[in-house]
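Practice problem: predict the structure.
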Amino acid sequence: MQIDFKKEIIPVNEMKWHQNTTLLVEGDVIVPDIKPDIRQVLMTEADAIIEGVTRDDGKLNVTGTVVIRILYIADEEALSPKSMETKFDFKDSIDMPGEEMEDINVKATTEHIEFSLINSRKLNMKVVVSLAAKGYAKRALSFLTDVLGEGTLQTRKSPLSLYHVVADTPRDIVITEAIEVPSAKMDIDEIIMLNIKASRGDCKIMSGKILLKGSLLVNTLYNGVDAEAGIQHMEHEIAFSEMVDVEGLQDDCMCHVTYSVKNVYYTLKEDMNGDPRLISLDVVLRADIIASKTQDIHIIDDCYSTTNMVSLHQETLCIDELLSEGTSHESIKEILTIPEGVPMTGAVYNLSCKSRVNGIQIVDEKMVIHGKLTAFVLYGAHGENVPMYSLVGEFDFEHAVLVDNIDDSALCECSITEQGLSFTLNAASEIELRCNLEFYTRAIKKADITIIKHCEITDEEWKPRCGMVIYFVQKGDNLWDIAKRYQIDQTKIMELNRMDTPQIFPGQKILIPGA
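Answer:
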């Protein structure tokens, strides 16, 4: 006789595949005709943007763009700083397994950038781009949670936590804003550089939608209408909030969002008085959204009958077990020293940092993140003919996150965002940097569980025992297994032995009632 069970079907979205790869993007940058020749390159920055992802014949084809920004000293009498921007397209193919995956997300970051000045109007640029691809497959898991009807079947329930990624997806949002020159600053004659970083704020989930919050940190360098006043510098912070749809998102999901600047469009405009003091901005942000959920249920993992033999039909499932997920913080303090022969610092115009993960180790139940922080400083030197100098510093760091029961088989992920940056001029040749880093880490482990698909009570009856049995508990015993061995209701053993809980210990004498 087959037993009827109450079943609970839970849809999950499991990570089935992940692959990291790097590629070299290389090309020549030609100075536009409207720009002066290059005398000295001050700073180069690069950001990688994914443009398209397609699948074809076991390959994941990725196309993207590397946006390169160059700041340089012009080879002209005024030795003024100039900037230019260019883009290199790239494509790569990544081998994929044969499994069917509904959702795939690819993220791109730049790991290294270098240049060589060929002549005053041409540079060769090399950028190392890292691609991180992940594939997810949907499936529905069915579990027995209760017995329908009355009978002699005894069931044991155990808790089970099912972890799955609800969404791992990018969304583009556009922020339109105008920033104004502060009253104490002079009018804009020419914008030298406009640097924008996105800082993460809170996010709020509302049934299939997520409210994204954050701020844009805008750092602007420009030449004022009075050329003798030197380079002008101003900073603005623009708060933003945007509601976006994410399929499957629920209120009880854990959500983490990181932002990267995809495109910046700006125009110099006049204010109400007709003065060039407004900058109209259109900023395209990529929001990478990771939403996950852990669902706790109780499932029947064993059963037996007190009257007949039972035939169990079981199945082994491989599920994702969440070991750790969340954010942690660390403040990095370093000293950037100006080398000998380079002019001392007069005023810092721009300070930016970029962090990257070099590797993750598992040490003593800790996830240890090894990373590198690169700092870029633009500064002016008093009494010098050249108005701007640059300095680059690289610093190694470690950050440890405690994770219970982690081992080398776990899949570990980490992303880092810079949440705050400040500096102090200790001396003309020293800049003390303070960078607050936020680490989003996740550790997942594959776990095999055995579940009951269905069970049948056979026609073979259990031959009842006559008389009471005295049983001495052995190491590793539990009351369920003892009751199952003697095919008796566990509660009857507890009643006879006046036990309030099913807890037992080795050497304990237990009376087993007869049938």
